[in-house]
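Example record

One chain of 511 residues, shown exactly as stored in the release files.
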Amino acid sequence: MSSTWSHSEVSHTGGGHSQDLNDAEKGLYNNKQRLAALPPPADVKQKTRIHISALISPMSSMHEGITPGKSVVAISQPFPAKQQATKPTVSKATSMKRRWILFQLWFNTYRKFFTFVTMLNLTGIVMAANGRFPYAEKHLGALVLGNLLCAILMRNELFLRCLYTIAIYGLRSWAPVSIKLAVTSILQHVGGIHSGCAISGASWLVYKIVNIIQDRALQPKSVIATGIVTNMFIIISVLSAYPWVRNYHHNIFERHHRFIGWLGLAATWAFVVLGDTYDTALGKWRSNANSLLSAQELWFAVFMTSVLIPWLTLRKVAVEVEIPSPKVAILRFERGIQQGLLGRISRTSVMEYHAFGIISEGRKSPYHYMICGVQGDFTETLVADPPKAVWTRELKFEESASVLEPELGQRCPPAFRTQNWFLIWIGSDQERTFGSTITGLIHTHIEPERMILWDSKKRGRRPDTVQLLKDTWTSFGAEVIFITSNMRGNDEMMEGCRAAGLHAFGTLWDF
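Predicted structure tokens for this chain:
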């Protein structure tokens, strides 16, 4: 049911914030005089890790969420005509240097992973075809399923939660900044492994089916049939995730990638069981289960089935929807939750899931929230027809786990829980757009000296974002910048940060 709950219902530990809001909007905290008043570098060096989180509103077209994989309808949305971003002065680098920077940003860790995985597997296929890969001759099915298992794990909430836990708790107390940056980049771009392994697994499967058909005199018809069916399902699932399909026909992508993928998993089980219980040398079926249990392919198939584990936590939960403006819906759920997570929601139990950043004051808070910017069919219905309940999986995943969504919900919680974050939020008519609930949470948990709220409507322009990041980086003593913006703003700031030597992670359009 659509509702507009009063701000007093939200649990706050701080005092009133109306004056803070006025001050921030008037720009008392985003000019050079205020930046100079920030803690000097000598003080901030005592902190374990300093971050700047830069947010650009309006909400990016990526806000609607992701299905494993991070992804969503990603349409480049330029700034409105009246709010054109001031073109930053990146540097006086030569055009060759600029092209090199752009290439580095394009050939990111995602594409490096994708290139490495696909080239490695392509080399293996060529070697196997020329009889120079003995393992492939005996365990061709294992190479197929090994790649598909790796692809599945890169989009599995349970595996990623474990991976993030190991990285966070294993590195935060001792690792230098360089190692933390490298690990963050790896975790942010595991989608490259997902895509590379999925395509490689499908390629190995085609190679295996070709071999089976060539030796069809030795193979039973059931093995050939299940192999062909499995091949068709896997190829359709892979092709449906092609960026153009995913971005412009998201529902088609989701139906085929999920349901055809599940059918492919079932067909894989049939293919593995039939293939490993038939003895081609003797030309008969084995009655002894030991040969099946000792096959590598069987255990790969067992672990592939782990994709279903998060679905066991599926629940229908009550939700209240606040609509502060036609552009945004704020979803409020009962009980607090761990900060820094993403949650997937849907109106149905198995279709059209979208992921949003979760805002929570902590586990003991009575509520947690999702900010849903209106950009597509799903979010439009949240405003036009607010739900009373939605479906969600209780097993949540980390915000960088899969196509990061450019939205406010991702960046506020870190700034809530630690003094080591600085929030820069550039948008139009912020309080009216997002409502008193969200702006109240921000002003209660983030001190004025740790944020810059730039209202482009009141100021009549956008700032030089790159220069603003440079000034804040120096004054706050930051170590890393996380950028949440639309495609144009993201590219502009990432290029400027790279040219200035600032460590930055931008929004992912998880291709």
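Notes: DSSP finds 21 helices and 15 strands in the chain.
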